[in-house]
Write a structure and sequence with these properties.
By secondary structure, the protein is mainly α. Helix 6 packs antiparallel against helix 9. The longest helix is centred in the first third of the chain and has 23 residues. The radius of gyration is 18 Å and the shape is globular.
Length: 236
C-alpha cells in the first residue's frame, strides 16, 4: 500500500498548492488552460486505447460495464460525495463536486493507476506508483488552480480505488496475465478520452458509470475456457 499512500498524499498536496494559485490566474487564462489540459488528456487516453489487442473485447466490456455502472449509478454517487464535501468545506471555492469527480476519474482509470496498483500488490514494487505520484502531484496543482479544492479530495478516492486493486491483486494473481492487464489499461485509456470530452465541454459523458468496464477483461478470461468447452460440446 506504500505506493498508493504516497500517490494520495501527492494529489492532496498538489491540490492544496494549486488553490493558492487560483486567484492569481485571470478567468480567460483558466478557460484556455482547461482546453489545453483537455487536449493533453485526450492524447493520453488515445495512446492507451490504441494498445488493445482485442477490439471486440473492448466494445463488449464498455457495453457490459456501462450497464453495470448505470445500474449502480456510480457517477451520481461520486457527485453526491462531491456535493457532501461542499457542505462540509463550504462554497467559497465553488465547484467542489466538479473538481472532485473530474480529478478522481482522471487519476483512477489511467494505465498507470491500474498497472501500478497491480504491480504493487503482486510484487511489492511501487516504482510505477511513485512515478505516477510525481505526475499526479504536478497535474493536481494545475487542475486545482482552475477546478478548485475538490481536486485535493480526489486523493481520497485514489487511495480507496488503488488500495482495493492492490489488495485484490494478491488473490487474483493467477488470472492477471499480461494480456488481461493490457486490455484493462486499453479500456482505461478509452475512458480517459471520455474525460477529455468532459473537460473540453464537447459532450457530457458519464465516464463514472463506465468504470466497471475496466474489470470486465478479468471476468472474460476467467470464463473463457468454460465458454470454449461449451462451444465444443454443442459442436459450434
Amino acid at each position: 500500500m506504500l505506493g498508493t499512500i504516497v500517490n494520495a498524499i501527492a494529489i492532496i498536496a498538489g491540490g492544496i498548492g494549486g488553490v493558492f494559485l487560483r486567484k492569481g490566474i485571470p478567468e480567460g487564462y483558466k478557460a484556455t488552460i482547461m482546453q489545453g489540459l483537455g487536449l493533453s488528456v485526450f492524447v493520453i487516453g488515445l495512446s492507451g486505447a490504441l494498445e488493445t489487442g482485442d477490439i471486440l473485447l473492448m466494445i463488449s466490456s464498455v457495453v457490459i460495464g456501462t450497464i453495470i455502472g448505470e445500474m449502480a449509478k456510480i457517477e451520481d454517487r461520486l457527485e453526491n460525495v462531491g456535493k457532501w464535501l461542499e457542505t462540509k468545506v463550504g462554497n467559497k471555492e465553488g465547484g467542489i463536486a466538479k473538481g472532485f469527480v473530474t480529478a478522481s476519474l482522471i487519476y483512477c482509470v489511467g494505465a498507470m493507476a491500474i498497472m501500478g496498483a497491480l504491480e504493487s500488490g503482486l510484487t511489492g514494487n511501487h516504482e510505477i506508483l511513485f512515478a505516477k505520484s510525481l505526475i499526479d502531484g504536478i497535474s493536481a496543482i494545475i487542475f486545482s488552480s482552475t477546478l478548485g479544492i475538490g481536486v485535493a479530495f480526489s486523493g481520497i478516492a485514489v487511495f480507496i480505488y488503488q488500495g482495493l486493486i492492490t489488495i485484490t491483486a494478491t488473490f487474483m494473481k493467477p488470472f492477471l496475465v499480461e494480456t488481461v492487464i493490457a486490455e484493462m489499461s486499453a479500456i482505461g485509456g478509452l475512458l480517459i478520452i471520455g474525460i477529455a470530452s468532459n473537460i473540453m465541454e464537447v459532450k457530457r459523458i458519464k465516464v463514472g458509470n463506465m468504470l466497471p468496464a475496466v474489470f470486465i477483461p478479468i471476468i472474460y478470461y476467467i470464463v473463457q475456457p468454460y465458454i470454449l468447452k461449451l462451444v465444443g460440446l454443442i459442436g459450434l
